[in-house]
Design a protein that fits this description.
Elements (H helix, E strand, L loop, with lengths): L1 E2 L16 E4 L5 H12 L13 E4 L2 H17 L9 E4 L23 H18 L10 H21 L7 H7 L4 H24 L4 H18 L6 E4 L6 H10 L5 E6 L7 H7 L8 H10 L7 E2 L5 E2 H13 L9 H9 L4 H9 L10 H17 L12 H12 L17 H14 L4 H9 L15
Parallel strand pairs: 2-6, 2-7, 3-4, 3-5, 5-6
Antiparallel strand pairs: 1-8
Helix pairs in contact: 1-2, 3-4, 3-6, 5-6, 7-8, 11-12, 11-13, 12-13, 14-15, 16-17
Length: 464
């Protein structure tokens, strides 16, 4: 049994604005998006049906996956070739691509990450020198760079929060009568409150997220002045940043605009949404906040046509939502399970929700990677089976990939490999350490034995 959308794919853009949809977490997002969008635009009738459409996706990886899924949908529709739509990455709006002119943007270009890090490093060293405290030792360069990275992350977080007012920081420290070290912290944060804006003004530059928000506002102004008649879809974004919400607000009001959210829970009550709004750690919090900022009720979000949810997937979603419910809703969870289960009872709901799940407890990270590699190899050896390793731990992905390489299975982690973990990266790191201490025999021998140390020979001079 599956839960199906009441809207046909052909009618995606026929409903009055705003058009906001959601794809359940159990459905393959990019495949469902591509299949329904191809049918809604009439790809089966014309290879250029999607030529003028614009699709915004969260990142480049999603954009590549969507392009591949769209070509698969075209082949299923009997079109061996198609003119692809304009696939853009959220936040990559800039005048360099020709879509926005310099007059559309009110902020100057952004500083590169390296320049921003260096500028914050110098401001931190200047602040440390201005303390004139003989008990404070000079700040090591490594510590200053680490502090610069933390300040850069703080700047990004404050830009995402929209409500940060750095001007109040010093007043809060004074009014609250805090300890001396709090006043020193407030003095340190004056770097981002006052000195950093002055530095950007002197360099005629802007912060990345501020520039991204300005680009989104400029794009919204262009659409408001001349609304495009072709489809404009913002898909996969949770609306976590002001820039994405600005673009979503503008797109949902266009003649053929639509927003496709990832995994919005369609069965949460108004009281539950109200409680989630006070629980930032809840997985639905960001989606709920985005809908609130867009002025849209969660009840008005419709299922994306074609993205059907199986009964077992629905049961699993309900169980996970109950497990992650805010603390204020946990006292009557057994009664809610009975209500959610309906006629079949909570036992059937739990069995359906846990169907196909398995728990394996590993002793350490090495065993965890070995188990994942064995399961992936077993899937490869079984006809008509597919498998994927989904993990937030990039170290586990790299360990698993290394183990699979022993069996001649090439599986590169989609997140990439850090430079210092590649052979050229390790070599550059060794050279840097050796240049800092040329008299260290261990470092010298490591450099000489490295496979990239040729010294005019075919291989390394030590044959390694």
């Amino acid at each position: 049994m599956t839960q199906k959308s009441s809207r046909a794919p052909k009618a995606v853009f026929d409903a009055p604005a705003p058009r906001i949809f959601s794809i359940p977490p159990s459905a393959p997002f990019v495949e469902a998006l591509a299949t329904t969008l191809a049918e809604a635009c009439g790809l089966d009738a014309s290879a250029d049906a999607l030529a003028e459409a614009v699709v915004f996706l969260p990142n480049r990886r999603a954009a590549r996956a969507f392009a591949e899924a769209l070509h698969d949908a075209a082949r299923r529709a009997g079109r061996p070739a198609l003119i692809a739509p304009d696939i853009r990455v959220l936040g990559d709006l800039d005048e360099d691509d020709g879509r926005l002119t310099p007059s559309d943007l009110t902020l100057p270009p952004v500083l590169s990450p390296a320049k921003r890090r260096g500028a914050l490093f110098r401001l931190i060293q200047r602040w440390r020198a201005a303390q004139r405290d003989p008990t404070l030792p000079p700040l090591p360069p490594g510590s200053a760079l680490a502090a610069a990275d933390e300040l850069a992350a703080l700047l990004d977080q404050s830009a995402m929060g929209e409500d940060a007012d750095w001007a109040r920081l010093k007043d809060v420290a004074m009014e609250a009568d805090l300890a001396a070290h709090w006043h020193k912290s407030a003095s340190f944060l004056d770097i981002v409150a006052a000195q950093w804006p002055r530095h950007l003004e002197e360099k005629s530059a802007s912060d990345p997220l501020a520039r991204r928000h300005a680009a989104a506002e400029a794009q919204a102004a262009v659409w408001a002045k001349e609304p495009p008649a072709h489809p404009v879809v913002v898909a996969g974004s949770t609306g976590a940043t002001p820039a994405s919400r600005t673009l979503m607000r503008a797109a949902m009001l266009l003649p053929k605009g639509a927003i496709v959210l990832p995994g919005l829970d369609p069965e949460l009550s108004a009281a539950a949404w109200d409680e989630i709004g006070r629980a930032p750690s809840h997985p639905q919090f960001t989606l709920g906040r985005a809908l609130d900022r867009l002025g849209v009720s969660p009840d008005s979000v419709e299922p994306w046509p074609g993205a059907d949810e199986a009964q077992t997937a629905r049961a699993r979603r309900l169980l996970i939502n109950e497990a992650l419910a805010p603390a204020t809703r946990t006292k009557d969870w057994t009664r809610r399970l009975v209500q959610l289960a309906g006629e079949k009872g909570p036992t059937d709901l739990i069995q359906n929700g846990l169907d196909g799940l398995a728990l394996i407890e590993a002793e350490d990270q090495g065993d965890e990677a070995l188990l994942a590699a064995l399961l992936l190899r077993e899937a490869l050896e079984t006809p008509d089976r597919t498998a994927a390793l989904v993990t937030p731990d990039p170290g586990l992905a790299r360990r698993t990939s290394s183990l699979l390489a022993r069996w001649d299975v090439a599986l590169t982690p989609s997140g990439g490999t850090p430079l210092l973990q590649t052979s050229p990266g390790r070599y550059l790191g060794l050279l840097g350490q050796w240049a800092r201490d040329p008299a260290d025999p261990v470092l010298l021998l490591s450099v000489l034995k490295h496979e990239l140390t040729r010294l005019g020979a075919e291989r390394g001079c030590f044959g390694v």
